[in-house]
C-alpha cells in the first residue's frame, strides 16, 4: 500500500493529551474526535489537513495516556500514515491495532518539513521525500506485528483466531 | 539463562521455561481492566471480535473513575454503557459510584493484584501494580477488548533498566520525589519499551511510596515498573484480602541495559516544571524563582493514598490556605476517604480552607473538579504536566509531592515545608 500526501510536521514528545485533549473524551465518535485533533498545539491542523496527508514527528510520538482516541482521531482526520523518529510504546501498539499506519524512520522524520510531499510504501518500508528528492527505509515491523497489520488490525486478527480455535 | 523479574513472570505466564529480551510471547492474563473512557471503546471492539462472553467474569474489572460522579450527559452515557455491559456479562468486579475509587488505588486495595500476576489495564498508569511484584502494563482499548475476549495478551519481552536504591530518604522526602528525580535522570523516553526494575534498599519505602514510584514508570516511557516482593508486600496483600501469588526474584546475573544507583539520602524535594515530567528541579531551585500559584491538587492514582493524605494533613494542620489559592484534596478511594474521617484528617483539610472531593481522577486529566483557566498555575500531586493537561492550553502544572503541594497552598507560591518554618518564626 502506498501513502502519498503533504507533511504536517511536529516536534519531540508530542503527547496524547495534545493529540486529543481529555475534554473531548466524553464522546468517542471518530467524526467528533477528528474535529479536535491536535488543536492544543496546532489549531489550523483540522482545517489544513487533506485526505492522504502524512504526519511527521520527532522522538517519542504519542507519549502519555493510553487513550486509543488519539490514533483514532488522527486516522479519522484523513492522515494516511505517521512517520516519526520514534514512537511511545502504547501509541505504537494502539495504532497497529486500529489500522493507522506508523513508520519509524529517524532520518526521514528529521529531514521532512511542513508542506513537503512524501510517498511512503508500507509494504517495502521505503519513504520518498519528493520535495527534497531523498529516499529512506523505515525500521521493518516484526513478522508477528506484520500478521496483525495484514489481517487489518487486532479485531479481525482476534476474530480469525477465535473462529479458528472453535472449529 | 538468566532473567529479570519481569522476564520470569512473562515466561511463566507464556508457559515457557525461559524468555529473552525481544521475544514475542503470548501470556495468560490474571486481570484485565478499564475505566469509563477506555472501557466503552473496548466494548465496541469486543463485540466486533464476534464473541458473546468474556473469558472469565472474575478476571475483569470495570472502574468508572475518570469523569465520575458523571460530569455531563455525554460522560454519563459512557458510564451507563460500561455499567450495562458489566451487568450483561455478569462482571464480578464492577465498582459503582459510592464504592468506586481511582482504579490504580482501588484494585490493590480490593486484593485483586497478586505478586507474579500478569495484568493489563486500558490506562497508562497500570504500571502502578508493579509495586506488588506483578507485571502490569497499560494498553489501549482494542488490546483490552482482545484481553476480555481471550484472556491472553501478546508482549515483546522488554530489556530492563536496574534502579538500585540505597540509603534512606531525608525527612519530608517521599516516593514522589524519588520518581520525579529518576525521570529527571532518564528523561521522558529514557526507559521507552523497557522495564524499570527497582531493587536495593526498598525496606524504607512504604507500600504507598512504592505505588507512587511504580505509577510514574510510564512517564519515563517504561513498559512497566516492578518491585521485589518483601515482608511489607506480603503484609499489604494479607491486609487486603489478597492471595499470596508467586514472588519472583531476578536472577543474580540477569541482564540489564542500564543500571542507575540512587542514594535516597541525596534525593531532594523535587518539582517537575511544565511541560514535561522530566523537567525536575530541587525545591531550592523552585523556591528561588518565587512562582505564585492559583491552585493545588492533592490526590490522583499517583498520590491519593492514605500516606499522601497524612503527609498533606501534617503540613496543613493549624494553618490556613493562602487567600489566592484553591486547594482541592481528593482521597483516591472510599476507604481512604473514610480513613481521613476516622483519623481526623478531614477536619484538618476543611479547617485549613481546602475543599475535599469524592474519589475521581477529575482534574488530573482536565476532566472536571478543578479545571485551570488561561494562564493559571497549579502545584499538583498528579503525574503529567503536558500542555493543556489540566485545562487551558496556557495553564501550567507543576508536579510535586503532597508535602510540597500542601506547603505551597499555604504560602501561595511553590514552597517546601522549610518555607513554612521560616514564615512561622518571622511571625513570632
Describe the fold and architecture.
The complex is a heterodimer of chains A (167) and B (428). In chain A, strands 4-3-2-1-5-6-7 form a seven-stranded mixed beta sheet. Chain A is built from eight helices and seven strands, in the order E-H-H-H-E-H-E-H-E-H-E-E-E-H-H. By secondary structure, chain A is an alpha/beta fold. In chain A, strand 5 (117-121) and strand 6 form a beta hairpin. Chain A has a single domain (2-138), classed as Alpha-Beta Barrel (Aconitase, domain 4). Chain B has 428 residues and is of the alpha/beta class. Chain B folds into two domains: 5-263, Aconitase, domain 3 (2-Layer Sandwich); 269-427, Aconitase, domain 3 (2-Layer Sandwich). In chain B, 34% of the residues lie in helices and 18% in strands. Chain B has 15 helices and 18 strands. Chain B has helices at 5-14, 38-48, 73-89, 103-109, 141-150, 175-186, 207-215, 231-239, 283-288, 300-303, 306-316, 334-342, 345-352, 402-411, 417-427, and strands at residues 24-28, 31-35, 60-63, 93-94, 118-122, 135-138, 152-156, 160-166, 195-200, 224-226, 258-263, 270-272, 280-282, 295-299, 326-330, 355-356, 377-380, 396-399. A five-stranded parallel beta sheet of chain B has the order 4-3-2-5-6, covered by helices on one side. Chain B has a five-stranded parallel beta sheet with strand order 16-15-14-17-18. Chains A and B meet through helix 4, helix 5 and helix 8 of A and helix 2, helix 3 and helix 5 of B.
